[in-house]
Every structure is written in structure tokens, then in C-alpha cells.
Amino acid sequence: MPGYGGWVNDSGTGAMARLPQELSGFNWGAFLMHWMWAVGNKSYIGLLCFVPYVGVIMHFVLGFKGNEWAWQNRRWDSIEHFRSVQRIWAMWGLGFLIVGIIFVVIGAVLGAFSGHSSSSSY
């Protein structure tokens, strides 16, 4: 593409926008934050994560197509800006995942020690 350094920032121009080679790869923010990431990056197809059965598959589709869709659907100042914002999405997603795991573990521990015994008779 013509432009400074042979590259033009065509982000936010829709399906014709070409994702720069260095941005290809898995988008962990899209995978972990699914619908919130989709709204924040104007990639509304990600809202299919609410459709039963399709939603599980959509997590992976967002992970693999997320960078491309975010580049096409939202205007970015630069490649560095894109990377920085997507890194923030990934960090928030990781944070939510860790907090979720902690709550599950706490719930399991509390459930195990709740005083209910399978040996008690009625």
C-alpha cells in the first residue's frame, strides 16, 4: 500500500481494511472478554456468543479473527496504539479469569466444609 514507509493506516474502513502482518495472531482479549470486547471494538458479530451452542464456538472465532475485525471496525492511531489497547483487553480478561477461578475454589471449599455430612441419617 502506498504511504509513509509503504504502509497506510486503513483501520476502521471496514472489510476492505488489511490487517498489518505484524498484528496477525490470536487475540486473548477477544477470547476472554467476548461480548464486552465485541462492543468495545465495534465487532458486533461477537454478540453471537449469547446464542446457545454457537457461543462456545464464538469464543474461539473471536480469538482467531479478533485482531482482523478490530482493525477493520475501529480507527486506530497506529499499530502500537492497537497493540496497547488489545493488550489491556487481554490483561482485563486474564484478571476476570483469575477472579472467577478464585470464586469457584472458594465456593468448592465452603461447600465441602458447610457441615453437611453424607453419613447423617434422617
Structure in words:
55% of the residues lie in helices and 0% in strands. With 122 residues, it is an all-alpha fold. The protein has one domain (4-15, 24-112). Helix 1 crosses helix 3 (79-112). The longest helix is centred in the last third of the chain and has 34 residues, at 79-112.
Topology:
Blueprint: H1 28-40, H2 54-73, H3 79-112
User: Tell me, what's the shape?
Assistant: elongated
Task: Show unreliable segments.
Answer: none
Distance between the termini: 77 Å
N-to-C SSE series?
A: HHH
Instruction: Compute the number of helices.
Output: 3
- Number of DSSP-assigned strands: 0
| Share of helical residues | 40-55%
Overall radius of gyration: 20 Å
Mean pLDDT: 91
Give a quick account of the main beta sheet: strands, pairing sense, barrel closure: none
Structural class: mainly alpha
Overall domain count: 1
Give the strand content.
under 5%
Briefly, what is this?
With 122 residues, the protein is mostly helical. It has helices at residues 28-40, 54-73, 79-112.
Q: Can you give keywords for this protein?
A:
elongated; 122 residues; 3 helices; mainly alpha; 0% strand
